[in-house]
Amino acid sequence: MGKQLVINDVTLRDGMHAISHQYSKEQIAELTRLLDDSGVDIIEATHGDGLGGSSIQYGFSKETEDDIIRTAVENAKNAKVGVLLLPGVGTIEHLENAHQLGAQVVRVATHCTEADVSEQHIKAGVRLGMDTVGFLMMSHRTSPENLLEEAKKMESYGAQTIYVVDSAGALTMDDVRSRVSLFKQHLSTKIGFHAHNNLSLGVANSIVAIQEGVDRIDASLAGMGAGAGNAALEQLVAVMNRMGISHNVDLYKVMDAAENVMKPMMVRPVQIDRLSLMLGYTGVYSSFLLFAERAGKEYGVDARDILVKIAEMNAVGGQEDWIIGVAQDLAKEKQIKRGIEI
Ligand SMILES: C[C@H](O)CC(=O)C(=O)O
Ligand SMILES: [Mn+2]
Predict the structure, then answer these.
(1) Is the pLDDT at 140 greater than 60, yes or no?
(2) Ligand 1 nearest atom to the CA of residue 218, by list position
(3) Which ligand is nearest to the CA of 219?
(4) Is 274 inside a domain boundary?
(5) 13 among the known binding-site residues?
(6) From the CB of 167, is ligand 1 less than 6 Å away?
(7) How far does the centroid of ligand 2 lie from the alpha carbon of residue 137, in Å?
(8) Domain count of the chain?
(9) Counting CB atoms within 10 angstroms of each CB, which of 9, 199, 317, 339 has the fewest?
(10) How far is the CA of 278 from the centre of ligand 2 (A)?
(11) Do 256 and 301 reside in the same domain of the chain?
C-alpha cells in the first residue's frame, strides 16, 4: 500500500451525465479550482460521453467542447486535465484539438469486448505525447479472462494504463478482485479502476481494486456522476486515510467542496434510489438513468420495467434511443391489458 495512488477526478466528465451536460463555464471554473487545490492528480473535463458527445443522441452540452476543456485547463494549476474519447463518437481530430487546448491525458473508451476499435485512437494519443489510457467499459459483461484479452490488445496499441470500468455499478467485490488481479498478473501497463455506486459498492470496490494493486482510481465530489454516481471522492479519501493508503488529496478540502459547492449544484440528487439501484441490479449502463426516468414519465410506465427490458437486450452506450422504443412498447402492452380488463 506504500505507493502513491493517482486520483483521476471525474466530477466534470461523468458528473456531466448527472446534470444533463449543463455545467456552465463558471461552474466548471469553480469546481476545477477546488479540485486542483485539493490535490487531485487528474481532472477529466468533457461532455459525459466524451469528445464529440454533444449531440441529439447523447444530449447537447451547455458549453462548447472547446470552452469546457479551455476553462478546466485555465483553472488547473497543478492537476493535469484529461479528456475521454469513445472512438466513433469522437475522432482523432477532436483529440488533436483537445491536446492543442492543453489536455494532457486521454482515456480511450470502448465496450469491454471491442478493444480493437481503440487502436488508431490510442496510437494517436501516444503520438501526441499524451498520458494514454485504455478504458474498458461495462466490464461486468464479459469474463475476467476475456477482459484480460481485450486489455492486452490495448496494451499492444501502446496504452500506458488500462482500466477496469464498472459502468453499470454491477460488479461485486469478488468480481473486481478477479478482474484487477488478472490484469496485475498479466499486463505490464499501469492499471486503473472506475466505480459506480449503484449497488452501494463504489468505495468498497475501489478499495478492493487498490488492495489488488491498481495505480489509479476514479472518484468525484459527492459521487457526482451517472446513475448513483461514482465513488465519492471525500468518502474514498476518508477510508484511504484510515487504511494508510498514500495519495495527494486533502480530506477537509474535498469534504467542503462536496458539501458547500457540489451538492447545491445538483439538479437531481446523485443517490441510490430505486431506479439507480436497478441499474446495478440489472447491469445497465449508468448514463441511461435520466433517459429511462424521462421515458417512464412520458409514456406512463415504470422506468424499472424499461431497464429490465434494456438489460435483456444487452444495450450498450450509444443505444439510448432504444429506451424510447421500449417505453412505447410497454405503454402499448399496458393499454392492451387495460382494454382486456375493461
Ligand atoms: C461514456 C461513459 O459515461 C464512460 C464511463 O464513465 C463509464 O462507462 O462508466
Ligand atoms: Mn462512469
Answers:
(1) yes
(2) 6
(3) 2
(4) no
(5) yes
(6) yes
(7) 8
(8) 2
(9) 339
(10) 16
(11) no
Q: Are residues 33 and 123 in the same domain?
A: yes
The answer to whether residues 193 and 78 belong to one domain is yes
Q: Is the pTM of this model over 0.80?
A: yes
Instruction: Concatenate the DSSP letters of all residues of 160-209 into one string.
Output: SEEEEE-TTS---HHHHHHHHHHHHHH--SEEEEE---TTS-HHHHHHHH
Task: Report the CATH number that the domain containing residue 134 is assigned in CATH.
Answer: 3.20.20.70
Grid coordinates given for 328: 412505447
- Nearest Cα residue to atom 8 of ligand 1: 167
Classify residue 148: in a domain, yes or no. yes
C-alpha cell at 90: 469522437
With a 6 Å cutoff on the Cβ, whether 287 touches ligand 1 is: yes
Which residues are annotated as catalytic? 17
Instruction: List the domain range (segments joined by +) for residue 329.
Output: 287-341
Q: Is residue 79 located within the same domain as residue 172?
A: yes
Least confident range from 200-209, 262-271, 314-323, 332-341: namely: 332-341
* Atom number of ligand 1 nearest to Cα 109: 4
Residue 51 has pLDDT above 80, yes or no: yes
Q: Do both 163 and 52 map to the same domain?
A: yes
49 lines ligand 1 (CB under 6 A): yes
Do 169 and 315 lie in one domain? The reply is: no
335 Cα–ligand 1 center, Å: 35
Per DSSP (E only), the strands in the chain are: 6-12, 42-45, 80-85, 105-111, 131-137, 161-165, 190-194, 216-219
Q: What's the CA gap between 68 and 277, in Å, rounded? A: 30
Instruction: Determine the distance separating the centroid of ligand 2 and the alpha carbon of 225, expressed in angstroms.
Output: 7
Asked if the structure places residue 149 within a domain, the reply is yes
d(CA 196, CA 217): 12
Atom of ligand 1 nearest to the CA of 53: 1
The yes-or-no verdict on residue 338 having pLDDT over 90 is no
Here the cell at position 126 is: 501516444
Task: Confirm if 95 and 121 have CB atoms less than 8 A apart.
Answer: yes
Same domain, yes or no, for 83 and 117? yes
The residue whose CB lies within 8 Å of the most ligand 1 atoms, and thus the one to mutate among 13, 49, 141, 286, is 286
